[in-house]
Amino acid sequence: MQRHLLRAVLPREGPNRWDLVLLPMVIASLFMVVLGAQRMAAPYAAGAPLSVSLDPAALPGYTLQTVLRMALAMAASVVFTFAYGSLAAKSERAGRILIPLLDILQSVPILGFLSITVVGFLKLFPGSLLGPEMAAVFAIFTSQAWNMAFSFYASLRVVPRDLYQASVVFGLSPWQRFWKLEVPFATPNLVWNAMMSVAGGWFFVVASEAISVEGYSINLPGIGSYIALAIAQKNAAAMAYAVAAMLLVILSTDQLLFRPLVAWAERFKVELSPGPPPPRSWLLTALRRARIGRLAAELGARLWELSSRLLAGRRSRLPGRRRRRLSARSLHVLDRWRTLILVAVAGMSIVALARFVHGEVSYSEIGQVAVYGLITALRVAVLTLLATLVWLPVGVWIGLRPRLAQRAQPVVVFLAAFPANLVFPVAVSAIIAWRLNPEVWLSPLMILGTQWYILFNVIAGAAALPGDLKEAAASLGLRHRVLWQRVLLPAVFPAYVTGGLTASGGAWNASVVAEVASWGADTLSATGIGAYIAANTAAGDHPRIALGVAVMSLYVIALNRTVWEKLYVLARQRFALE
Amino acid sequence: MTRVNTASLLELRQATKRFPAGEGGAVTVIDDVSLGVGAGEILALLGRSGCGKSTLLRMLCGLSPASSGEVRYKGRTVVGPQPGISMVFQNFALFPWLTVLQNVELGLEAQGIGREQRRKRALQAIDMIGLDGFESAFPKELSGGMRQRVGFARALVVNPDVLLMDEAFSALDVPTAETLRNDLLDLWLERQIPTRAIVMVSHNIEEALLLADRVVILDSNPGRVKEDLRVDIKHPRDRDSRPFKQLMERIYGVMTRAGVTAQVARATGIGYRLPQAHVGQMLGMLEELSLAERGGSVELAQLAAMTQMTVDDLFPILEALELLDFARVSGQLVELTRHGRSLVEADILRRKVIFGEHLLRKVPLADHVRRVLDERARQRAPKGRFLRELEDFLTEEEAERVLAVIIDWGRYAEIFAFDAGAGLFSLENPVADATPR
Q1: Residues B76 and B14 in one domain
Q2: Which residues of chain B have a Cβ shorter than 8 Å from any chain A Cβ?
Q3: What is the mean pLDDT of residues B362-372?
Q4: Which of B285, B369, B272, B267 shows the shortest CA–CA distance to B321?
């Protein structure tokens, strides 16, 4: 068996020129992973200060650590996505609980997760740096996993029925069906969401490396801690190095990871008509031509055979069958019991949370926090509106020019990925120099990173406008107001809603970082719930963090339900182009 | 020629299929069907759309369990998909991310057959069906005919005992379907495939007659066996030969009885399954009839040829016309009624008036909607109200469909208006608000 495998796997000829490029890359990345992992598991006594150096020579090492955290969080997100998404889609009952839960998790501010969970992780890995490392990874995970799980779930719900039937008729096992049908079908959307997740993740990676726990702070070696120190010491040169390192990292993840992934995911698109030319990636081409790529593919195929044989046996069934077996009556009774239990659990958690918070916090402060939430809500609303007024026309203009749109898209993705917190110090200096009002002028920082989602989605929406509609509008002589009102705005509306929702959700999340910004000893603070959470996180005041996080989540959920969901329904019913 | 064995290979015994409808009720789609498929025969199931023929096929292969009665394969009850039964799908159901070869290998992979063996057998099947050279192509690179060849190769590679075909040729253009059909028939007649029986669902009478040894015609609403005909014409069959034409006419006759007339006689109550026919189609058909009509009537088969339509398209339109008393179908003859003729001769506005009068008089659901709107103070009613009523008689899906039909007809006749965004029926004329006439 062993010999047979080797004979089949080993290339019959020597390596080709593509291998010359790829081999060093593969070896170098393996080496880096090992190095980074060693540093992550270093011993650490709780409370001991970790030294971070501003020496540019240390920066590559820090960058590596940060990237590794990101990669771990991504891997965890993918596993989570597969498990959670399948469970929610396969069992109607589980879905009825899991999907609303996901909705709630999505609205919890990400940095809130960090301050609440870090203590647990410290206890889980005593005496090792793994504790805080895992806390940081978990924070990044929470910024990535929810939307990926949603996308996977949504894809599973729309797998074509005849493909499911074919998989049943031909007797695929559930394991085979998962990898041959469900995952491939979900891949294009999932890759896209993973890309958005990573873009958002850089923002939180920078924010999550400097963790404060019960009064003392842990600065994990990484680019985020480097930046935090540079800001504290007002070191502009170090800031410039950090920005350069970040640029490099984002560019290389795009080239080395996402471009190949997007180009590869092209084959999983179900649409049978030819569309625009598929994206290309030099790395994917290299992988497909190099022997090492084929070797990896062959190994993958062998693993697949093995797993398939080990997990064979059961034949899969059509989804959603089991429900019918129970009579409607017994189902009703079951449902009632489950609802009762759910309500009881939810009630108890609310009471527990209320007692935890109220032990420390008075009613008047709770009212105060609600007002803070309102102020931040106002900021988010105004900023989303402003960003819409600017980027909607620009996006339509770009989207109608296919060439320009194709070139603009990667640039916008890049802008979205660039962590906006790196430019905060510039804003702080400017506000101080010109004596501006921080209540107003700190606000734009919230939407700095997430406004690009509006632009990006609108470009995509306008680019997807069918050619015959454009021609019809032109032949009818539509121009100016009528053209925008009757054709362009309705056409991009669904895409805009997606972008707007992402942007406003991101702004809420960013408020925790953006309502308090500093440069050296100068710290500016705006009134709002973000500032409240940030201040209490720094002080390690858990009841107040819990209160702030809960109130913010409530606001986000309420806004999603009252505004965005309505817009979504409207978009789907009235403005969807079919 | 025939190798029919009296013992049934695959068999339905008093099988019934019900789907749940509103308020714990159920709609019967297949009612007490007993049917045996013998070894060595090609059996064609014919019937109008909605008669449950696809459901029947899915019951045969264990995709859709019977509500009562049983399905037996080789003497044993079928509870799930069987390794000996494979299927070809109407829209191919190919996995777009797998190459032709990988698609064909799929069933073998599920059976746990090793890689080498899998490849060998898949390549053989690909050769046999005439796909060689396309092994590494993806489905989206292939034409429709080639895609369905992949569908056949995938179904045949597992050496099935029984091959099920769900409208396997209906998504293909005429010459492509013809070629593929002949290729399949050759494989079958020359026994190049070990398959012992083929069951096909079709709405194309000619196609069924070209292939099948036996034609079973299903009645609809609920689905029952209406007629079981043996086809003893030798292959290759000549569609211009007398016996072929006679059989064709006979089947048309049976389907007319099964379809239009019997239905209309039962057309009572709001839960009637309105046929899927658009107003435009009805008007077009009436005009066609008025032009072709000499001496008062047209033969069904001739009408099908004239309009280049298949039974599936033809019958709902005729049913609608008969329902509204614009045409009459008797035996194999179709003729315009007095009202149908005056409708054809009227101008655009007058047509709407005539259509509306007949709609209110002949279709209880239309009358019901109108009455409810008249009684309400604001003359509005939500869609959900009528859907709930319909769901007492129909499945959820079917209720949606029937309501969509009545909306289409009602809008044309201007007997009520419907706002899709708000989901509201009303009596107000949306045009009247914007531009006064």
Answers
A1: yes
A2: 20, 24, 58, 61, 63, 80-81, 83, 85-87, 89-93, 95-98, 106-107, 109-112, 114-115, 138-140, 154, 158, 420-421
A3: 91
A4: B285
Same domain for B386 and B406:
yes
For B197-228, write each residue's pLDDT tens digit. Answer: 999 998 888 899 999 999 999 887 778 888 89
- Surface of A (287-306) touching B: CB under 8 A: 301, 305
* pLDDT < 50 regions, chain A: 1-11, 272-275, 320-327
Q: Which of B86, B98, B139 sits opposite A170 (nearest CB)?
A: B86
Residue B223 lies inside a defined structural domain of this protein: yes
> Which chain A residue is nearest to residue B62, measuring alpha carbons?
A169
Question: Do residue B57 and residue B201 come from a single domain?
Answer: yes
Q: Which residues contact A524 (CB under 8 A, 6 or more apart)?
A: A428, A431, A432, A438, A442, A516, A517, A518
Alpha-carbon gap: B155 to the closest alpha carbon of chain A (Å): 8
Interchain pair A162, B83: CB under 8 A: no
- Find the CATH number of the domain harbouring B242: 3.40.50.300
Rounded-to-integer distance, Cα A236 and Cα A426, Å = 10
Q: What angle do CA B71, B73, B78 make, to 5 degrees?
A: 50
Q: A409 - beta bridge partners?
A: none
Cross-chain residue pair A573–B87, CB shorter than 8 Å: no
Q: Which of A144, A114, A106 is nearest to A553 (CA)?
A: A106
pLDDT of residue B265: 47
**Are B242 and B380 in the same domain?**
no
CB contact under 8 A, A272 and B140: yes
Q: How far apart are CA B347 and CA B350, in angstroms?
A: 5
- How crowded is residue A503: how many other Cβ atoms within 10 Å of its Cβ? 28
Tell me which residue in B93, B110, B420 faces A165 most closely, judged by beta carbons: B93
Q: In whole angstroms, give the CA distance from residue B248 to residue B253.
A: 9
- CATH classification at residue B313: 1.10.10.10
Write out the H or E segment, with its range, that includes residue A403. helix A402-417
d(C-alpha B347, C-alpha A342), whole Å: 64
Residues B246 and B274 in one domain: no
User: Is residue B371 within 8 Å of B427, Cβ to Cβ?
Assistant: no
Write the pLDDT tens digit of every residue in A219-273: 888 888 898 888 888 888 998 999 899 889 988 888 888 888 888 887 787 664 4
Helix, strand, coil percentages for chain A (3-state, nearest 5): 80, 5, 20
Number of domains in chain B: 3
- Whether B129 maps to a domain, the answer reads no
Candidates A142, A145, A119; CA nearest to A132 is: A119
A278 touching chain B per CB within 8 A = no
Whether residues B332 and B370 fall in one domain: no
Work out the burial of residue B160: count CB atoms within 10 Å of its CB; fewer than 13 is exposed, 13-18 middle, 19 or more buried.
Answer: buried
Domain termination residue (choose one: B258, B284, B309): B258
**Beta pairing, strands B42-46 & B214-219:** parallel
Residues B287, B222 share a domain: no
Residues B202 and B338 in one domain: no
Distance CA B352, CA B347 (A): 9
Domain boundary among B258, B287, B302: B258
The answer to whether residue B1 sits within a structural domain is: no
pLDDT at residue B1 greater than cutoff 50: no
**CA–CA distance, A483 with B333 (Å, rounded to integer):** 53
* Residue B140 resides in a domain: no
CB B39 within 8 A of CB B9: yes
Place of tokens 């008075």: A362
The range of the structural domain enclosing residue B71 comes to 8-84+196-258
Specify which residues B381 forms β-bridges with: B425
Stated pTM of the model: 0.79
Cβ burial of A102 (10 Å; 0-12, 13-18, 19+) is buried
The interface predicted TM-score (ipTM) is: 0.74
